[in-house]
Amino acid sequence: MSAIAAVPWSAPASLAGVALPLFVVAAATLLMLMSGRLLTAIMAGLRGRVGSSKEARLPPGSFGWPLVGETLDFVSCAYSSRPEAFVEKRRLLYGSAVFRSHLFGSSTVVTSDAEVSRFVLQSDARAFVPWYPRSLTELMGKSSILLINGSLQRRVHGLVGAFFKSPQLKAQVTADMQRRLAPAIDAWRDLGPGARLRIQDHAKTIVFQILVRGLIGLEPGPEMQQLKQQFQEFIVGLMSLPIKLPGTRLYRSLQAKKRMARLIQRIIQEKRRRILDADRQREPPRDAIDVLISGGSDELTDELISDNMIDLMIPAEDSVPVLITLAIKYLSECPLALQQLEEENMQLKRRKTDMGEALQWTDYMSLSFTQHVITETLRMGNIISGIMRKAVRDIEVKGHLIPKGWCVFVYFRSVHLDDSLYDEPYRFNPWRWKEKDTSTSSFTPFGGGQRLCPGLDLARLEASIFLHHLVTSFSWVAKEDHIVNFPTVRLKRGMPIRITSKD
After folding, report:
1. Which pathway does the UniProt entry assign to this protein (predicted)?
2. Which of 9, 152, 238, 334 is the most exposed place for a label (fewest CB within 10 A)?
């Protein structure tokens, strides 16, 4: 459940529609080049090129066109049905899974080598620090868990990660999802046979409410609706032009964030007042704000907490709903997998019904084939296609030099679709995970190292619960839909299906 997966441009309906987004990217790149930070990165790249001793160890590659580098080619491929073509073409050309390029205003080493990728992910701030486009860093804020480093990052990540893994939160999320899904399923059933649903929309509505309650303790109601509206205004600015003038996309997103922060900081202040009550000090944390407030550090300010709560909402709008939607698409296209998933979940439902027991979070996570389906969906879907880091010193890995000041782009997608690592990588095959280890360097949908996504268990749990209740309540016929891979992964039409109740 990575907190960074969203960027704003709508994907074009046809090739003709690519022209405007590509122009926007080119303009954004040129504007970013004007900032001192990126000019410094470019100069560092030029120094790396002219140093003869370093040149021999730099990965092969090309810096492309002046100023824009190879950004336009990367974006053009990203809008296609095979975004990995950008890497594949250069991998064949240079004979290497590690090559140099120039992307989004920075000299960059791109890697689709699983071992190099793992090295970067496992490294700490003494080697690499996060790098994001300027508009994103403006919106995230300097105290975001995505940008902070060192002991503060480890503390925030550790506190949030431990809470997300706790049985207490998993039980709460399970109960909340069951409570939200029950009336939704009844409403869908009342629509009658052949009713049309857009799965992506329903998944977003349900998951957002559940995760926000787990983060800040907010219940559904007017404040939740207001927060969702402001969040949608905020999220579309994550990769906008870095101009903060009134009326611009970035300015409107920043204003939306300020409104969200005011609401969340009111909640934080109320919680701090409650903690001062001696009778309530021993209460277990009910949400992520409680966890950070009780973290025992003056560095965990109200501003830092509110900024990170907003960042952690991103998976609720993007990553987890898309995981659910993609799983339903792939299952619809693989009847044998859908049949086995349905049999496994029906067996669980009958067993728990016969015992007179409610389903617990451990029941959902014990469904082995369901977990294989989710794992295979993560591998094929590549909801997070990769991450970028910046080298803080010269780094050498597997004989390749990454000069200080350069970025390194760890491209998960090419690793997950590498035919030397996966047989028939473009075929949805959940059964491959019966024997394959998900902890290898060739499977990194949640990143790795100190910045491993803290919500990975929750993402699997929420997807498992949604799939269980859908397949045990309905059969369906999927309508044709297409995956859009850039700027965010999503289904173009929201994955429409026509359902028939099994009752």
Report:
1. Plant hormone biosynthesis; brassinosteroid biosynthesis; Steroid biosynthesis; Hormone biosynthesis
2. 152
Phi then psi for residue 500, to 5 deg, are -135, 130
What digits encode the pLDDT tens for the residues 261-306? Answer: 999 999 999 998 887 765 555 678 889 999 999 877 788 999 999 9
What span, in angstroms and rounded, lies between the C-alpha atoms of 411 and 393? 21
- The mean pLDDT of 388-415, rounded to a whole number, is 94
CA 141/CA 16 separation, integer angstroms: 36
Q: From CA 343, how far away is CA 358, in angstroms rounded?
A: 19
| CA-based nearest residue to 116, from 428, 338, 438, 444 | 444
DSSP character at residue 386:
E
229 φ/ψ sector (left φ>0, alpha ψ -120 to 50, else beta): alpha
Q: Which of 98-107, 359-368, 433-442, 475-484 has the lowest mean pLDDT?
A: 433-442
**What are the tokens at 8?**
């704003």
Tokens coding 285: 């944390």
- Give the separation between CA 471 and CA 328, rounded to whole angstroms: 10
How wide is the angle at C-alpha 449 spanned by C-alphas 447 and 454, nearest 5°?
65
Q: Which CATH architecture has domain 15-148+386-445?
A: Orthogonal Bundle (1.10)
Q: Is 36 helix (H, G, I), strand (E, B) or coil?
A: helix
- Give the torsion sign (CA, 26, 30, 35, 38): positive
Spatial CA neighbour of 164 closest among 320, 281, 381: 320
446 and 456 Cβ atoms separated by less than 8 Å: yes
Closest by CA to 387, choosing from 405, 415, 407, 410, is 410
Reported as half-sphere exposure (CB side, CA atoms, 13 A), residue 45 has a value of 26
Inter-residue contact 403 to 59 (CB < 8 Å): no
CA separation for the pair 43, 359 (Å, rounded)? 58
Query: Where are the domains positioned within the chain?
Result: 15-148+386-445
Tokens matching residue 23: 């122009």
What are the binding residues? Answer: 453
Tens digits of residue pLDDT in 443-489: 999 988 888 888 899 999 999 999 999 999 999 999 999 999 988 89
Tokens found for residue 157: 């990540």
CB 40 within 8 A of CB 387: no
Range in 127-136, 391-400, 476-485 the model is least confident about: 127-136
